[in-house]
Design a protein that fits this description.
With 613 residues, the chain is an alpha/beta fold. It has 3 domains: 220 residues, Glutamine Phosphoribosylpyrophosphate, subunit 1, domain 1 (4-Layer Sandwich), CATH 3.60.20.10; 226 residues, Rossmann fold (3-Layer(aba) Sandwich); 61 residues, no CATH class. It has 24 helices and 19 strands. The strands form 4 sheets. The protein has a 6-stranded antiparallel β-sheet. It has a 6-stranded antiparallel β-sheet with strand order 4-5-6-7-12-13. It has a 5-stranded parallel β-sheet with strand order 16-15-14-17-18, with helices on both faces. A hairpin with a 2-residue loop joins β8 and β9. α2 crosses α3, α22 packs across α23 and α22 crosses α24. The longest helix is centred in the C-terminal third of the chain and has 30 residues. It is globular.
Amino acid sequence: MCGITGWVDFTRDLSRERAVVRAMTDTLACRGPDDEGLWLSRHAMLGHRRLAVIDPGGGPQPMAAEEEGRTRAVMTFCGEIYNFRELRAELISHGHRFRTRSDTEVLLRSYLQWGAGFAGRLNGMFAVGIWDAANQELVLARDRMGVKPLYYFPAPDGVLFGSEPKAILASYLVPRRVDADGLREVLDMVKTPQSAVYSGMLEVRPGHLVRVRRAGLTQHRYWALEAREHRDDLGATVRTIRDLLEDIVARQMISDVPLCTLLSGGLDSSVVTALAAKAAGYGRIRSFSVDFTGAEDRFEPDAIRGTRDAPYARELARHVDADHTEVLLDTAALADAGVRDAVLRATDLPPAFWGDMWPSLYLLFRAIKEHATVALSGEAADEIFGGYRWFSNPGAVRAATFPWLTSGSARYFGGLTLLHDGLLTKLDIPGNRAVRYRQAVGEVPVLPGEPDSERRMRELTYLNLTRFVQTLLDRKDRMSMAVGLEVRVPFCDHRLVEYVFNVPWRMKSFDGREKSLLRAAAADLLPESVLERAKTPYPATQDPAYTRRLRTELAEVLADPDAPVRPLLDLDKATAAASRADSGISQPYDRGGLEMALWLNRWLVAYDITLDL
């Protein structure tokens, strides 16, 4: 895993701009603590920060392919290619020779062999920039599910790009401005493909290539979800899912550095951990879970968290003989200014939803990094197999909007309660959301003859896979890479996604429960209690002391006449929220307004943002 960046300009001599590419590359040091590299030519320069995972002694980047003493192509790459061994064998049959054991060299040679068609041959998570020196062209490519981030800023005579916005912002060419569309993106819980919040900046869409030539910039889609008739019966479907999962987890355990799993005791992470524990020749798997000090005595069930994770994680770890570690977090650390600054530096945006979960993930990953460099996660299983409650909520299914923003779920993604009515009127978030919803539904592939009920569930699955899970993948990428930890997501393997996407909903929910197919596929792997456990999201602190810290900080912000968030807030509501007394257990949905206001202010200050509203 790594951080990548670069600049192409067809009218400027970039060989004189080493200080710029170094500044851009340095911003990504956390993503790649093991090594750095720069490559410069007249019209292109590339930067790279490396986290060594495969072939630590080989694969330095940017990596160049030379031919008869001339540079043919140069690449900077972030991610992992899980089928690199098969591709390497195929490329050798085509006459390619290799100097390293790295997947990096396989990726570069794949481009030389297949040109822009290389991306469709890859199984993995990746963001890559390739300067094709022979054709004077830059190719940017991103994996199918968008696991790895990749941003770019079109300039008059070229483009700047980077793994994170901060790399692009480090150049002297990009203003730190955010318009109304960008602020809507910050404030609404919908990830709009291609949007990058900062004015003029874009994100490469998952499954897409961006090609930059002297004539201009073009986008090309190399992968998308397709509607296909599902011909397998229930038994064959379950067997296929199990076979795919076994192959996926085995592939994603390839590593030359210590590897572990993230284990919550829920179905998804338990399946990944159990399969990792059985993988041939690996040995005893390490696993990690997270909880908060005092949670055992303080925990109170609510509408979405009926049980604590710890007992289930322990039981699964015993069941598979995992070497398990419980990471206990001090609630005070979640509000610590240094931790919050580190989170903001990693995100480049205010992490306004689930505000405590970003610092808790950061602290968890920081603790794990002391023992491992790679972790396997259960992310995306809910989106693929229908694990969220809105999949079975008739009102959410019928609603003409994103299901997680309907009345039954919307309060968990609230945060606008302290904003000024005039700002909310100007932004018209409901109207903008309606437009984005229609655009998203318009993309959904259609299967001729499919019943209306099945078509609707296909739409909901598509919305979750393209507009919801992207936020979770971004959070996991930023918080893990902020400490140099690589997190892999087996459920995002495109073969599994494509297959399960086309399984009819009546089969996905054949036993009347969420994630029926995944339970069936893992029935022999897990203890009964874990197999039957209801969906429970990532833990959030319920410590009233955390909310008191937020109120104290908000009071300090409101007392500062120069605080940039003040014009965005309803000061009467904000003052009342800052002075409100404790009301017992602290729930994340009760503090959404506090989190939003505080993260917005921290971002506006730290990044010196100009709002064009």
